[in-house]
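Hello again, I could really use a second opinion on something today. Take your time with it, there's no hurry, and the full record follows here:

___
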Amino acid sequence: MSKTKLALDVVADLRSLANSIETFVLGQQTEIKNEPASKEKKAKKVDTSVEENQPTLEELRAVMAAKNRDGHREAVKAIIQKYGAENLSSMDPKYYAQAMKEVGELK
């Protein structure tokens, strides 16, 4: 593995960790206030946490670029096209997490 890929993997992991910590802290704030959470609020929290764990275009681009450099150019291109896009910039953000998972599984 190249040093660049390892560094990009660390960056992606740190972003994911930061999102998880933020979600945890926000959850703790709600408990401290002893606010009874209605069903609407609980549903809203779940939706928010899903969006927070969604990778950004930049994160996905970095991981895909690393896989391109590792010789998976065609596989990366196929993943982008699988989600109805000609290039990464035109991919619908709702597919970023799925695409990130698939790219991560390339060996």
The chain is about 70% helix and 0% strand.
